[in-house]
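Write out this protein's structure.
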Amino acid sequence: MKRIAALIGRTAVSCWHHGSPHFPPLPAWTPGPPYTCPQIRHLAAKQNKGQFKGQKIKSKPVKLEKQQKQEVEIKQRMTVSELAKAMNKDIDHVYEALLNTDVILDEMEPDTMLEEKWIKEAVKRSGMKHKWAKLVETKVRENKDIQRQPPPDPAQLVPRAPVVTIMGHVDHGKTTLLDSLRKSQIAAQEAGGITQHIGAFRVELPSGEKITFLDTPGHAAFSAMRARGAMVTDIVILVVAADDGVMNQTTESIQHAKKAKVPIIVAVNKCDKPQADPQRVKEELVGHDVVCEEFGGEIQAIHVSALKGDNLLELAEATVTLAEVLELKGDPTGLVEGTVIESRSDKGKGPVTTAIIQRGTLRKGCTLVAGKCWAKVRFMFDEYDQTVSEAGPSIPVEIVGWKDLPSAGEEILEVESEQRAREVVEWRSYMEEQDKMKEDLQAIEAKQKQHQESYKKDRESMAHLSWRQRRAALYRANKHKLSHRLSEKTETEELTLPIIVKGDVDGSVEAILNILESYDADDQCELDVVHFGVGDISERDITLAETFSGTIYGFNVAANKSVQQMAAKKGIPLRLHRVIYKLIDELKDELSSKLTPSTEENIIGEASVLATFDVTIGKKKIPVAGCRVQKGQLDKKMKFRLIRGRNILWEGSVTTLKHLKDDVLTVKTGMECGLSLDNEELEYKPGDEIICYSESEIKQKISWDPGF
């Protein structure tokens, strides 16, 4: 500006004093009237450096620089938050950029994936230009997982004891049979007399032969435990009660054994009972493709009495004979391999697992990996809780030293060092996260596709409408959703039962969760498992239950006095059970108590209107209906309904009920009466019906059937 002002000033002065081709020469000065002389204002201009006095300034054209557009690096599958960060804007800016497009902004979240065309559109509308981000080669992580060793050299194999799983229906005598074999009292210790854990025991027969037995639960809730027992075993002893025959879990046990391709020995138990019929049992088994030797099959059937100990030695010999035929051998050398049979949390020992060793010899100090958990073996115990120094193939053992609690059924593998164990666990956790991300991405893409199709369909159906008509149509379509949203939310909150499940061992918790997965009555009351775990009830569980206003269900666990007092103070219900079906029954009762009771109507009496008249009380005329009771009786304390034809005109109570001139409480069949209702504006007509009825609430029951 200063430079332009200087240019104008110098040009004006030069032209005035020296003449200029652009201006005519000035005439000679002559005196004129006052205040009429021309006044000249000289514009001051700063002299630039290096410029001489009187030198003319050459004007240079001003170049306007073209505004550079901001470049945004984009890539495939960008989320809204990633795009906003790349544009150096906030998330709301991206939303505004996508206004009036086919994108459904109401359903868009910061982590919503955007299609390529919408990424480019948002950048374009923001006055920016996009460029594709350079592809960076991601370094492929090295697979750090551990696998089973190759098959051992046959020369290294030595004979091992058979692993025998006892399976069958609940209460058919499986645990009593095992008790008789090992002369213990396991069944007496089980709640309700039914096995609810998977137990591993080592039994030595009088002949010196050793057999490892797995006692699996027969209850319907423990299907997963039976499946695990069948997968790690060499022989299955199928126990069937002679007085009961083939039942549901008997059939399921046969299927598990066939799936695992394990040979079966049938033990027909309770043959000492008067109503026992072993022959019928064997005939029923033929229908399930279990053909005994006397019917031309290859399956041995032994008649036993577990309670009296009859023929138990014969059953054991049959097991040993079959094991010899199978030529069972194991490799006691090399790295340890095994399977987690059961896992639990012990107060003194910490996380403890019961495992069957399948290869190698486990010793104190070994480093093991199972799933995403690892252990440095500190102690090992047998089924009698005695410390053992080592455990070879087919030996059941309790392992102490786990950092976390592995799930039952996990494969146990030995590694060289703790560092290697951490690498394996880290790799498995990483792979699980990757798999989960893929599943989430597929779910997001499917949901987006569904919404896009729905939105496109709605747009096509309204394509012929103007924008005002389209907006009005959308408002009408969504009006009911807006009006009911608050009430629906309140109702959902009321009809939700949050629960916390705690069990003594991993298998028990798994069994309960498997039952809860069959819950199918969410339309009545939603069941929400907010937490589950292994171990006794803790103060953390009480705090969590208070946060969610939930109930704690414990199976074979305890709660110390301080925890019970804390629960009572905060009003948290503790439901502790030792029998699984009683736990489920109480859960069903609590779910049913959440349901709104239904109202049942009982008709007490019916009357017909014969005539109508008015009665004056003070200054008011009150309409009165003269009636005859046709059925039952009219009770003044109950509710009444006025019906004309098929229409209900009124429901309420009676203000006056008279027989002749007396006020009465009830009028029986065949008697006439006059009555007035609590609505004085009603007009009665001969032929109207008046119904007297009562309402009673009936508690609803949850429709969920867990199957037992």
